[in-house]
Each structure stands twice: as structure tokens, then as C-alpha cells.
Amino acid sequence: MTSKLEFISRRSPIVCTGGCVASSQPLATNIGLDILRKGGNAADAAVAVAAALNVTEPASTGIGGDCFCLFYKAETKRVYGLNGSGRSPRALSIDLLKQQGFEEANPIPSTHAHNVTVPGAAAAWVDTVALFGSKKLSLGEILQPATELAENGFPVSEISAFLWKTCAFVLQVPQNQHGRDLLISGQAPRHGQIFRNPFLANTFKVLSESGKKGFYEGRIAEAVVQVVKSNGGVMELEDLASHVTEEVQPICTTYKGIRVWEIPPSGQGITALLALNVLENFNVKEMGHNSADYLHVLAEALKLSISDTMWYCADPCLVPVPTEELLNKAYSGRRAMLIDLQRVSDANTHGNPFETGSNTVYFTVVDSQGNACSFINSNYKHFGTGLVPEGCGFTLQNRGRDFSLSPGHPNCLAPGKRPFHTIIPALATTADTHDLLCSFGVMGGFMQPQGHVQVLFNMAEFGMNPQQALDAARFYVEYSKEDQKWQLYLEDGILKDAAEELKARGHDVQWPICGHDRKLFGRGQIITKGEWWRSCQIPINNRKVWWAGSDPRGDGCAMGY
Question: Which tens digit of pLDDT belongs to each residue from 100-154?
Fold first, then answer.
């Protein structure tokens, strides 16, 4: 299999008036639509899609990882949030890691069992249905299509096959006794090859019949603890049995009449909101889409926002997080003044809001009642740790990799603590009437808030429809600890002249990023209500037409009825 991946097709946005689903796998999208047609709502369908993607994209997502959910209830025009992430084992501490030779300068290897935090997805799937579901379908009915897909098998899609093969080594190591359960004759399945996962089907059946208790207690929990301990971890059954999903109040900011909603810390959604607040101080539309001026100011704003997030974003249950102060417009105005429009800044320091003066799946569902569910599910790095509990058919995440090992850092590892979290779903409503504008997201590690800003601007500032907004070339900015500087990655499709001008301003530019390497820029999905983006005017058209797009960087599609 080569790394070459051509981008030669074009897509029109999906338009429909009933329900709509956009995901990174057509089989999963179709399963979500079937749930809607059976009477389920957006929340029911989202959980069905999450389970189906666990089957079809196990390198990226699964019940052994975490998930976040934003739900827009049309009847009340309210946005609700769930933090479905898990906590570190109670026996895991900085002192223990130091005894084993691990510290900030010598971090835990990404596949080490110490990086396994309690999988939060199973509980959050159940809670999403219980809190926001239609009550017309049981959990078993919602999970049944994915269960059948796992039992009967499915043909593996192209990009999923590439990722599977790229990361199969974590399943093939001798100490990972049950990694072979996610392989065929010891190898990753090929594009178009049928793959079956009967163990995962059984896990879904247990969850359907026994709910959260079936996953966090009993055979599955014992298998999780056994594989973690046998690979050097310290997770106990009580860590699993005590897990709960957290209902959270979503955070938001306004940008030119649009209210953008994100999950609060421990998620990094605040990064996108901080960047929007900074960028509100510039006329980005006049700069021109993906011009050197435009890319420069967005990159600089995101560098400032990422620097803030990497210090302040942590588990608010254990450390104070100054969310309100960070989102104050006056603070963002001061941060905006640090941006030089003609020269790059290599600063990597957070501000002071108290001063005076790479793997995930994102998908979205809307229903005929106008409800929307923005949902994201992840193993973190490909296959997570790669550790497979016996007889379960899924891998365990390595989300603990995102803890700091520096004592005194707000996100420093501590027993029973949630780590800083990269996965973030998003919603947008009108700022005044709270009507739904769109449900959207872009998966992909630290690309996610950067993708949120870029695709939102593609619609709100440049009038692109949802599919065009996802098709447009993107950039990604990242701080290299090794090189002690920021790097700016530009996707193929951004003009050479812009890349050269950015180099002249001092950016460390990597251009063009092509083929399978485009995974760096994430894979997104968007569903909008009406065509507010066409004239960039708020409020939206009152006629209820859903417009949807699916990222060309993935295997998926949007579908509706």
C-alpha cells in the first residue's frame, strides 16, 4: 500500500428536510439514518453511529476510549453537554512514576499501560440515550445494528485500512496476547477485505442487557484490569466501578452574531473560543481566504490560544480553571495586541487572565424535530495503547499520555484525575434567539480547535456551504518541544506564493502536505440549518432545510432524507 492518496472528486452538499447524519464511514452514517427512521432522535442515532464506528474504525475510536457530547434541544433551544472522559487509576502517582524512572524529560511510552485511563465511552453512550434520547428505542435496539455489523463482518474502507496497517504493530507485539483479535492472520485487513469482530459484538450485547454495570463491573471490567496489570499498570476494579459521566455546562463565546458552543475544560474547546475572541479584533474577511495575511493572523491567534490552554486547561474537579476570566473579551483584546501583522512571534508562554485593564472520529446528527447531537469519540493515538482485554474486541486508550509530569502544573498527573483532553465537539446558534445554526467538528488531536475556527470562518466570513467549508485547504500550527519553536503546516491547495510570504515573515513552513499525510488536518463533518452562510446574515432562513458536508480527507459521507 502506498502513501499516495489522490483528491480528485468533488461533492455537493447534502440537502434534506427530515433527518441527517454525517460521519467518517458510510456504513455508520446509514445506521444512524435507520435509527432516525425507526423513531429515534439525534441522541439515539449518535450512539448508534458511535458503536458502528467502533466496528469500522477501531484504530481511531471505540468503547475502550472516551467521548464528549453536545446536545441541542430544539424545544427549549438549550445546549447540554456530557464529559465522557475517564480518570487515572487511584494508585497512579507522580511519586510512583519517579520510582520507575518516568518524569517530564523521560515520559511514559505512549503504549505503556500507565497511560490507560478509565474508558468513559460506554457510560457516556448509555447516559446520552438516558438523558437526551427519544425514549422510543431501547439501548439494545440502538446498539443492534453495530452488533450485527461486528458479528457478520464488513468490508474495510480505504483510509481505515491504511491507518489499520500503519498502526498494526501495537497489536502484533508478543506481550499483547489478544491484539490478534483485531487482525486477520496476524495482519491488518486490506481495503475491501471482510473483517469480523465477534468479541466486540458480545461486548455490545452485555452493554445492551446490563447497561453501565455490565461494562464497569463483572467480566469486562476484570478483563480490563487484568490486561492493564499484566502490562505494568496499576488500575483496580474500583477505578472502573466508581466511574461516572459528568454533566457539564457548555461554554461559549460570540463572534459577529454567532454563539459558538464547546465542552469546558478538561476539554480543549476553550482554545477555539479564545482564538475567536482574539480574531474578532481583526478584519479577516478583507485579508482574503487563505492569503498570507489571513493565514498569518489565524496562526498567531491560535498560538496565543494554545499557549493559554496548555497551561490552564485541566480537570476542574481537582484544580481551579479560570474559564470565565480567560473568555473575557477584554483579556482577548490584550492578547490580540501581541500579534505583529508582519512578523511571526515564537513566544510559547501563557497569558494572565487575572491581569487588570492524531486519532478520533467526529460525527453529527440532526433529527426531524430540529434536535442536534455533536459527538466525538476517541482512542487517542492510533489504537490507543493497543492493549486488548481478553474476549472484549476493543483496545484501551492512552489518554493519560496528555498529563503533565511536572509537579505544580495544573494538568499534572494525580490519582483519580482527568487529563487535559483534545477531543471536542461544537455547536453554533444565533447569539440573540439561540436558533440552531450548525452542528460541526473536526477531529485530529491539537488540530481540532484550529479546524473549528477555519471551517467556521469558511462559512461565516467567506460564504461557503458546509461541503465547501470542509473541502478548503487547511493549516496546522504546532509547537515543537524538541526544536523549541512553532511549526506551520500548509495543506496542498494553499498557494506557493502564500507559503513563501509566510516564510518571509518568519514562520517555519512545511508545504505542501499531500496524500495520506493530510490526516494531519483532521476529518470534519458539518450539518447546518438553513443557508445562513450564503449571505452571512443572522438570523437564518426560517425554512427548515438541512445542509450537510463530510470531509474529503476521510472515507465518510453525509446522508439525509
Answer: 999 988 999 999 999 999 999 999 999 999 999 999 999 999 999 999 999 999 9
Query: From the CB of residue 457, how many other CB atoms can be counted at a distance below 10 Å?
Result: 21
- The Cα–Cα gap between 470 and 303 comes to 22
What gap in Å lies between CA 435 and CA 43, rounded to an integer? 18
Active-site residues, by number, are 360
d(CA 137, CA 88): 33
**CA–CA separation, 58 vs 43, rounded Å?**
22
* Tens-place pLDDT, residues 59-95: 999 999 999 999 999 999 999 999 999 999 999 999 9
Beta bridge partners of 438: 428, 528
Residue 54: exposed, middle, or buried by beta-carbon count in 10 A (0-12, 13-18, 19+)?
A: buried
CB 338 within 8 A of CB 369: no
269-279 vs 292-312: helix crossing angle, rounded to 10: 130
Report residue 413 as a C-alpha cell: 498527573
Interatomic CA distance for residues 529 and 436, integer angstroms: 7
**Cα–Cα distance list, 11 to 49, 77, 469, 533 (Å):** 22, 31, 12, 18
Amino acid at 113: A
**Residue 561: exposure state from Cβ atoms within 10 A (0-12, 13-18, ≥19):** middle
**Residue 7 to residues 425, 496, 514: CA-CA distances in angstroms?**
26, 18, 9
The grid coordinates listed for 477 are 500550527
In a 10 Å sphere around its CB, with 0-12 CB exposed, 13-18 middle and 19+ buried, how is residue 512 labelled?
A: middle
> Which one-letter amino acid corresponds to residue 427?
L
| Per-domain residue ranges of the chain | 248-360+442-540
CATH architecture of 248-360+442-540: Orthogonal Bundle (1.10)
- Sign of the CA dihedral running 182, 184, 187, 188: negative
Nearest to 522 by CA among 360, 385, 398: 360
320 burial (CB, 10 Å; 0-12 / 13-18 / 19+) is: exposed
pTM, entire model:
0.95
Cell of residue 308, nine digits = 493559554
The set of residues, in sequence order, having a beta carbon less than 8 Å from that of 324 and lying 6+ positions away, is: none
Q: What is the pLDDT of residues 23-58, one digit of tens each?
A: 999 999 999 999 999 999 999 999 999 999 999 999
Q: Which of 425, 443, 423, 442 is nearest to 374 (CA)?
A: 425
HSE toward the beta carbon, residue 354, CA cutoff 13 A: 3
Check: CB of residue 313 under 8 Å from CB of residue 323. no
28: nearest Cα among 360, 358, 365, 359: 365
Q: How far apart are CA 31 and CA 142, in angstroms?
A: 9
CA distance 82 to 69: 5
